[in-house]
């Protein structure tokens, strides 16, 4: 093989007691699309952040671009002029035009008086984006452009000023914000960049993208490089096994779907955000997955069912065990179903509260003593009981919640939902940002609740969660349930195909 | 200073599964309670007292000074307490100063110009305060205007109302100086006047509410993370609305006490109290329950500021010294809370935790 364009060796990174990356090697050849794949929490975003100069690597790491060594051990604004990044959120300013956004990274052309030469700027921008076969008004605010147009502007911004030279473009989950129909266009653009002899490092956790696009793939899991292989020799199954690891496959697979059983939750004709009429029943002890691509609407289902969706909602639901009456979805909060929200820091925990205060917040009415006083003794006992039950690792219930790891914070959020003894537990992206070990504990915990008869809804875009947890999965596309997959048929390829509609 | 050698977390109760000797636990808790981190203002206050006792030994360390500090700061304390509840829910009520002016003016107006008795005049003035609280609530909570700007705007409206009533001159009259009304602020026991009692009562009530009731916990939850609180069934809008009503009522009451103590209705009675109220509330939030706006911390801060200003008044005749002192204390306190860290931690220079909470290790806490 020719000399690699980008070479990283022995890259390790520790955050406190957590080994985020351990001796990772990575090589990107010229004219290659090299995929970096791994489940959430595997360390791939840490790797990208180190390359981007956001974190520094632990001593001992080696990095070269086209044979030139560069330093990873310092935090820096940029590592190397020919190492360019398009981050997941694209890093664009929506209020500004394409021209302005491109100028933010490379500066404005000015006259001798210092005023901006707009015609030249606009010509330059147009030329850049036209390379990718894109015709947009370079003066319009980007917020008005389509997602793929924004993605292209972000790529154009990243590639400014490297024309004719060989560099490496790093794309961090660029399709996360794209509607499925536009992914193919983005792929064409990425291939075009490769064909100029550049290297592309393509980060994803979506297997289908790897097969569609990449030449080689590096799988990382638990902070270690598991394998680097040519994509041509892989099957979806073998790649899934590499990604998931054996233990996930065997230990966490629901043995079988529960037999026909009475429903604990019935949802009819639910409209909210992109959702266009969803019906489903949830049986006692069932673990129902709801999934889809970002924006499909699957992530809204739990919010709508527990009455936390901000925006118009329509539909009806009922808890047959509690009452025969149907409840309008607009009054869904009256059912009081608890939710483990997707955004733990923003909606889940109250960072300034202690572990105990976070745990008991929805249970305070139960802890009333006389004259409305909060019974501190009972509150403490309740908190201790649940810390023990779900196995939260904390210095004590008085410790501030933000001193806990993401996984342990998630346990606290789950515990306070479970303490309400709900008939149904709803979880959104329950393992986002949770390390592998804690993830398995969370799976266990959820499974135990279901075995005791609780209905569980897991809305997740992480197929790992669905594979490990669910008896049945509803796949949502464009606001409707397009597939229902049950039991043994829940496989990574089946899920991905249903999500993409291929 | 905290005596725990390992971790800077004095708020944490001793672990149940590791029973320390009873005296050890008690000692640790006492040490935590008396730490600079917890009650730094008390130590600063002691330093100030010693400083002025040395500087002006004839006039400062006297019973008169004690009375002056207490009596002279009771109204300021009431106004400061009135902003504690909204602040706990992250709502700014800047109209409190104007509400205070309004009730002082209205009470005087009803008693002097329309001849109502003190009871009726006070009831009408408090009704006005209540209405303004409701208006604030509607603008901030229902119409969703940022509270900082919204209450500044309603403050301007109130000031225009005051000008309508008073033509911008104080309302005076014998009725205001006579017995039943004057007693509200001037009745005293051993030189300590009634407003000091009001202050203690208001502080006790707010302390009980914030520390010992579910509503208090929910108020803090609303202030810290309204989205998360709402998902946990906390009715954040209702709470924020009610804090604005509460602050209007308490600052309105402060206005009446003020009118009674000076014997007139002044159109600008409240304005000088606005800055000191927020200064005390923010300094108070660094005390006792660090990071949380709380009643006794605020009272402590009022006394600290009051003592310093009184001492400066006795030691120098410089007019500018009082504001200089208030401003300096406020900045120092805000720097200490801004980073949500108390002094000893800063001095210890612990390494900050990693930027990503995602990768915060489990081991760190076990």
TrEMBL record, chain A:
SMART domains, per the entry: AAA
Tagged with keyword Hydrolase: no
Keyword Repeat: yes
GO molecular function: ATP binding
Highest taxon above the source species: Bacteria
Keywords, in A-Z order: ATP-binding, Nucleotide-binding, Repeat, Transport
Domain (ABC transporter) ranges: 6-247, 259-498
PANTHER family: CARBOHYDRATE TRANSPORT ATP-BINDING PROTEIN MG119-RELATED (PTHR43790), GALACTOFURANOSE TRANSPORTER ATP-BINDING PROTEIN YTFR (PTHR43790:SF9)
Record protein name field: Sugar ABC transporter ATP-binding protein
From TrEMBL, chain B:
Keywords from the UniProt entry: Cell membrane, Membrane, Transmembrane, Transmembrane helix
Positions of transmembrane segments: 38-57, 69-89, 96-116, 122-143, 148-167, 187-210, 239-259, 271-288, 295-314, 320-343
Comp. bias regions, Low complexity: 1-10
UniProt source species: Streptomyces ureilyticus
InterPro entries, alphabetized: ABC_transp_permease (IPR001851)
Matches recorded under Pfam families: BPD_transp_2
Renumbered residue ranges of the record's region Disordered: 1-23
Topology in membrane: Multi-pass membrane protein
Protein name: ABC transporter permease
Subcellular location: Cell membrane
Main location: membrane
Domain of life: Bacteria
């Amino acid at each position: 093989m020719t000399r690699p364009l980008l070479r990283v060796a022995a890259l390790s990174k520790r955050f406190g007691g957590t080994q985020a990356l351990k001796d990772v090697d990575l090589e990107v050849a010229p004219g290659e699309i090299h995929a970096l794949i791994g489940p959430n929490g595997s360390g791939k975003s840490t790797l990208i952040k180190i390359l981007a100069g956001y974190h520094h690597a632990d001593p001992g790491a080696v990095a070269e671009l086209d044979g030139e060594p560069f330093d990873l051990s310092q935090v820096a604004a940029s590592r190397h002029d020919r190492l360019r990044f398009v981050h997941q959120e694209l890093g664009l300013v929506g209020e500004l035009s394409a021209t302005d956004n491109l100028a933010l990274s490379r500066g404005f052309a000015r006259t001798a008086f210092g005023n901006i030469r707009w015609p030249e700027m606009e010509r330059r921008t147009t030329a850049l984006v036209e390379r990718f076969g894109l015709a947009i008004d370079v003066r319009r605010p980007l917020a008005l452009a389509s997602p793929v147009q924004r993605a292209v502007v972000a790529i154009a911004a990243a590639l400014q000023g490297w024309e004719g030279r060989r560099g490496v473009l790093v794309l961090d989950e660029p399709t996360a914000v794209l509607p499925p129909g536009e992914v193919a266009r983005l792929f064409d653009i990425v291939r075009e960049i490769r064909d100029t002899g550049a290297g592309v490092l393509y980060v994803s956790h979506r297997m289908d993208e790897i097969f569609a696009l990449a030449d080689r793939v590096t799988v990382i899991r638990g902070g270690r490089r598991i394998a680097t292989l040519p994509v041509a020799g892989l099957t979806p199954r073998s790649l899934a096994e590499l990604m998931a690891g054996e233990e996930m496959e065997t230990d966490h697979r629901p043995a079988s779907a529960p037999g026909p059983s009475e429903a604990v939750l019935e949802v009819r004709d639910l409209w909210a955000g992109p959702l266009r009429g969803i019906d489903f029943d949830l049986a006692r002890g069932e673990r129902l997955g709801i999934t889809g691509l970002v924006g499909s609407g699957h992530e809204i289902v739990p919010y709508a069912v527990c009455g936390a969706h901000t925006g118009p909602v329509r539909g009806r639901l009922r808890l047959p065990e509690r009452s025969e009456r149907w409840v309008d979805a607009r009054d869904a909060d009256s059912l009081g179903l608890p939710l483990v929200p997707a955004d733990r820091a923003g909606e889940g925990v109250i960072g300034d509260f202690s572990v105990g205060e976070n745990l008991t917040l929805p249970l305070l009415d139960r802890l009333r003593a006389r004259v409305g006083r909060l019974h501190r003794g009972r509150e403490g006992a309740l908190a201790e009981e649940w810390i023990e039950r779900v196995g939260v690792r904390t210095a004590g219930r008085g410790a501030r919640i933000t001193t806990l790891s993401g996984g342990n914070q998630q346990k606290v959020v789950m515990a306070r939902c479970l303490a309400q003894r709900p008939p149904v537990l709803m979880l959104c992206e329950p393992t986002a940002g949770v390390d592998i070990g804690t993830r398995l504990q969370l799976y266990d915990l959820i499974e135990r609740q279901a075995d005791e008869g609780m209905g569980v809804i897991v809305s997740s875009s992480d197929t790992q969660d669905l594979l490990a947890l669910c008896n049945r999965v509803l796949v949502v596309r464009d606001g409707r349930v397009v597939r229902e997959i049950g039991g043994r048929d829940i496989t990574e390829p089946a899920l991905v195909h249903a999500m993409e509609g291929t | 200073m905290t005596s725990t050698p390992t971790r800077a977390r004095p708020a944490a109760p001793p672990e149940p599964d590791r029973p320390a000797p009873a005296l050890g636990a008690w000692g640790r808790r006492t040490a935590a309670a008396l730490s600079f981190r917890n009650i730094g203002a008390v130590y600063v206050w002691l330093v100030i007292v010693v400083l002025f006792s040395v500087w002006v030994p004839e006039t400062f360390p006297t019973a008169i000074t004690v009375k002056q500090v207490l009596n002279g700061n009771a109204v300021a304390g009431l106004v400061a307490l009135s902003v504690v509840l909204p602040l706990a829910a992250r709502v700014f009520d800047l109209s409190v100063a104007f509400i205070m002016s309004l009730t002082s003016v209205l009470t005087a107006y009803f008693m002097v110009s329309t001849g109502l008795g003190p009871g009726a005049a006070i009831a009408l003035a408090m009704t006005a305060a209540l209405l303004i609280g409701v208006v604030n609530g509607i603008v901030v909570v229902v119409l969703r205007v940022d509270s900082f700007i919204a209450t500044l705007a309603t403050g301007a409206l109130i000031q225009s109302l005051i000008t309508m009533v008073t033509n911008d001159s104080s309302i005076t009259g014998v009725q205001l100086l006579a017995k039943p009304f004057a007693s509200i602020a001037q009745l005293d026991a051993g030189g300590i006047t009634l407003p000091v009692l009001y202050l203690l009562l208001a502080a006790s009530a707010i302390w009980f509410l914030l520390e010992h009731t579910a509503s208090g916990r929910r108020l803090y939850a609303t202030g810290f993370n309204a989205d998360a609180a709402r998902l946990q069934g906390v009715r954040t809008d209702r709470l924020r609305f009610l804090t604005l009503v509460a602050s209007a009522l308490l600052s309105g009451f402060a206005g009446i006490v003020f009118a009674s103590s000076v014997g007139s209705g002044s159109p600008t009675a409240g304005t000088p109290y606005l800055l000191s109220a927020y200064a005390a509330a923010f300094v108070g939030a660094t005390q006792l329950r660090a990071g949380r706006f709380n009643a006794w911390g605020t009272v402590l801060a009022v006394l600290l500021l009051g003592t310093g200003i009184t001492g400066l008044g006795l030691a120098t005749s410089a007019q500018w010294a009082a504001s200089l002192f208030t401003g300096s204390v406020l900045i120092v306190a805000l720097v200490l809370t801004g980073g949500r860290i108390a002094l000893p931690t800063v001095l210890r220079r612990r390494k900050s935790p990693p930027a990503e909470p995602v990768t915060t290790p489990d081991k760190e806490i076990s």
